Every structure is written in C-alpha cells, then in structure tokens.
Amino acid sequence: xxxxxxxxxxxxxxxxxxxxxxxxxxxxxxxxxxxxxxxxxxxxxxxxxxxxxxxxxxxxxxxxxxxxxxxxxxxxxxxxxxxxxxxxxxxxxxxxxxxxxxxxxxxxxxxxxxxxxxxxxxxxxxxxxxxxxxxxxxxxxxxxxxxxxxxxxxxxxxxxxxxxxxxxxxxxxxxxxxxxxxxxxxxxxxxxxxxxxxxxxxxxxxxxxxxxxxxxxxxxxxxxxxxxxxxxxxxxxxxxxxxxxxxxxxxxxxxxxxxxxxxxxxxxxxxxxxxxxxxxxxxxxxxxxxxxxxxxxxxxxxxxxxxxxxxxxx
Length: 314
Prior knowledge:
With 314 residues, the protein is of the alpha+beta class. Helix content is 12%, strand content 25%. It has a six-stranded antiparallel beta barrel with strand order 1-2-11-10-7-12.
C-alpha cells in the first residue's frame, strides 16, 4: 500500500470514529487561541475532563497541599526588627504568576498545577510552546513549573498567584540552581584540610591525598569526594522564614540565603518539615476582594509576639 493510500485510510478511520471535539483538521500556525474559551470552558474553569474547578476560597485540611510559586531572586540585604536585631534578608519578586495548566488524575494521572511566570515574546519561543499557551488561553510566559497539589487545591487556568499566597511568619522551602563555580579542587569543593604547608611538602599543599587502598579492592570507590565541577546544581533550602511581604510590589523578604545568582528563578512552596498553621494560610490561594487596589496595600511584617528576638534571628 502506498503512503498516500495509508494516509487516506487513516483519515477515514479518524472521521468514522466516535464523536470528537470539533478541532480543525488543518490549521496554519497563528497567534489565535486554538480553543474558544467561551465554547469549551466550564463554570469557573475546566480542565478538559468534565471536572468543574471554581476559583473560590476553601477550608484547608491537615493533609491538603497547596501550589507553589515562581520568584526571581533580586539580591540580599539586611533589616533590623523592633528589638534592633539584624536579620539577613533575601528579596524575592513574584513576577506575574499565573496558572497555565491544570492536570488531573483522570487525564494525566496526577493532580498538579502548572504555574507560569514572567513574560516572553513569541519570537523567542518555539512553536510547540506558543501552541501550548494559545491552547490554554494564557499569555506567553518566560518560566514554567509544575507543582503537585491535592484535589481540593486545584485552581482554574488563568488564576493569578500573588505574594499574598504566603503569610509572614510561615516557613517555606526554596529550590533553585546554585551558582556555577567551574572546576574546583578538593579543598574548596569539599572543605578538605589539604596537605602540610611546610616540612618537606612540595607542590602538594592543596592536594587531597590518598584516594584508595592497596591491592584490595584495587580501585577508587564511586562517589569519592575528589576535584571536579562545583555548583550549577539544583538545591533546596528548607525551612526559610518569611519575614515580610509587600503586596503592592509583589515582593517577599525571606531570612537567610537561597540558591542561585541575582536574576535567577527560584521555586517557593510551603515547608515540608515546619508546616505552617493551616488556619492562617489562604486556601487554595489568596483571592483579592472586588474593588481592592493592590497599590494601596501596606507591607505585612511577621509578628514575633513574645519570641526572643535573638532566637528568631538565629
């Protein structure tokens, strides 16, 4: 059978199968949305499998899992609390976080939300990427990240995730790509003490020393700490304390350092070990009241209460 005949048979089988969503069989690439949001979306937002997802506040259960957010690391500074204790601070900017895709167990086998951050021009994206955004009916995004969630924490496509998704005083886990250091020796990479600086040591002051045994086993074990490429790896800093948020500028101040250089993307989610109080967190996210002006909101600072300020700053 020729290739043309096989193509014709495949087309006939496609047309003779059961009812399908009436997508066009041939369509040139364009900036128009592939799906008419008014024709296929459900009340409050749908995910394509008949599930209705409503954008409304809910009650967070102890086993509920909220979505995370994507932030840009702006740099580090220092702040002083009302007791005069100095707190090292990293400033993070949540740049236009939006839900760009909803994944469910029925279709993808998992409950998850894909979050997009930033903006990007169409000429800087591939055609499959542009098609993905057009099909979901969301603006073109610079960075995408999928966060697993529970079923009760699903949000409709297009929902905005602001800095008020987090609460001052809670703990979060921050994931990012560490700064690349290139090829480094054992002393810098692993903290080895090196060899003697005198007493006959020649050209081996920063050497790591022996790396194996004798004839048995006669090899260097895998995973041995040796010189090599340092940094440029994914790292998660756990239990980072949220000191302050600024809803007007969508900024977050967190205590201590987070992975990555200035301008890099980091991923923020609720801490796994130091879980926040579920009664204080907006669930599944913060929904701004109608008529609220974000530019008029004042920054929110963590309330330390009766906690020793020096214990909080450690």
